[in-house]
Specification:
The protein has helices at residues 2-31, 38-105, 107-126, 130-143, 148-160, 164-177, 182-194, 198-211, 216-229, 232-245, 250-262, 266-279, 286-294. With 296 residues, the chain is mainly α. The relative contact order is 0.03.
Length: 296
């Protein structure tokens, strides 16, 4: 019995001694970096290599999946486009047959539909509702495939959107239907001028005037083009022709007055100012313009 107690005391003393040693060495043990041990470093490096390989494989698989997905969706998209194109062609053919039948059965009703759609399209243009205007003009063409007003309207919408390629295409079709369309040449001149092609614009406006000299707007736009080209005598004649055709139009009177002021033409400026005062007495700039004429 005594022997057992002696052994228990020795064991307790040993435990206490070990605890003291561990307590004293704890800060040193805490400062030891496991990742600094060569064996552990080797293991970490091995794990990094495995991770990198896995990441590369995942990246390859991901790229393959993405690429496959793109090809798949591209094929689906292409198929859908072909399908929609076919449907559009079938619808166009069907509507054309209906139009032909309507024209035979009730031509007056067809003309009424076309006139209504054109009026609504022009209202949409005035409101600058380009999508609606475009759709209405397309509807007119579906009812009447050779309707020149509809193609001119399409050109106006495309020009407003600065889609000059499609605008020209519509105007070329107009000229195929009607070679002497002054309206088409005026619009071509407008596109040329907006693109900075003044010489081409001049030619288009002159062609339009040669076909129809009674459109004031064309003379006005020709005047602007000639003035930009430095052809002052031609510009003055074009402006005066626009005023002659529409003597009460403030826009054309103002253009001629500004031209006269810029070129020190006092008599022309005074005469034009009087016409502008009569045509637009509420113009807020009349007093300023009168002073400018007086200062010439």
């Amino acid at each position: 019995m005594l022997y057992d107690w002696i052994l228990l005391g020795v064991f307790a003393a040993s435990v206490v001694a070990c605890g003291v040693i561990v307590w004293r060495k704890l800060p040193q043990l805490a400062s030891i970096r496991i990742d600094a041990i060569p064996k552990h470093q080797h293991q970490m490096r091995k794990q990094q290599i495995l991770d990198q390989r896995l990441q590369q494989k995942l990246g390859t698989v991901e790229a393959a999946v993405v690429k496959g997905g793109k090809v798949f969706f591209h094929n689906v998209s292409a198929t859908a486009r072909r399908f929609l194109k076919k449907l559009t062609e079938l619808e166009r053919e069907y509507r054309h047959r209906i139009v032909v039948q309507q024209a035979i059965d009730d031509p007056d009703a067809l003309r009424a539909k076309v006139a209504t759609a054109l009026a609504e399209a022009q209202a949409a243009v005035t409101a600058e509702d380009w999508p609606r205007a475009e759709q209405l003009y397309v509807d007119v063409v579906s009812l009447d495939p050779k309707n020149i007003d509809a193609y001119l309207g399409m050109a106006d919408v495309a020009t407003a959107r600065k889609d000059y390629l499609n605008a020209r295409e519509a105007l070329r079709f107009v000229l195929k239907l009607q070679q002497d369309s002054d309206a088409a040449y005026t619009r071509l001149g407008r596109i040329d001028r907006q693109e900075g092609k003044l010489v081409e614009a001049e030619a288009d406006y002159l062609k339009s005037v040669s076909l129809n000299a009674m459109t004031a707007g064309t003379h006005y736009e020709l005047g602007v083009t000639e003035e930009n080209l430095g052809n002052l005598a031609k510009a003055e004649r074009a402006y005066q022709e626009a005023v002659k055709l529409e003597p009460a139009n403030p826009k054309y009177l103002d253009a001629l007055l500004q031209f006269a002021l810029a070129n020190k033409r006092k008599d022309l400026a005074r005469e034009t100012l009087q016409k502008l005062q009569t045509a637009n007495p509420e113009n807020q700039k009349l007093e300023e313009l009168a002073q400018a004429v007086k200062d010439l």
